Amino acid sequence: MVERGEFLEHAQVFGKHSYGTPKKWLEESKAKGFDLVLEIDVQGAAQVKQKLPESIAIFILPPSRAELERRLRSRGQDADEEIARRLAKARAEIEAFGKYDYCVVNDDVDRAGLEVEAIVTALRCSSLRRRAVVENLLASFGGKD
After folding, report:
1. Backbone torsions φ then ψ of 13, nearest 5 degrees
2. Which residues are paired to 12 by β-bridges?
3. Which of 5, 13, 34, 89 has a beta carbon 3.0–4.6 Å from 29's, enabling a disulfide?
């Protein structure tokens, strides 16, 4: 799929896993009038922003290094060396927060979820997204006086 250019974004993460978002997901979402929300790493987000500058990037941040380390360890999937590598990479990724449109700190999952919902709701109400609605409203008033 990579060779055929079928991904909106793709990356190899931590040297062992390859991920990607098929372009067809975006095309299908647009055709249905849906918003497409991607859960992707910083590499993927940069690729999406490059290809779709109008896209909105939300950076979900851990509340602290200590909490991130606790979460990684609680998964029980990685050795100490891998956790150390992930934490070092996390710092570099967090330093790039200015490339994102919004940042949400995930210290309380319910509140963080509400913040993401609020961002999406605000975007749906933007004058750019509502242009057709406003133009139809104006047309309902008839010609200019």
Report:
1. -110, 130
2. 18
3. 34
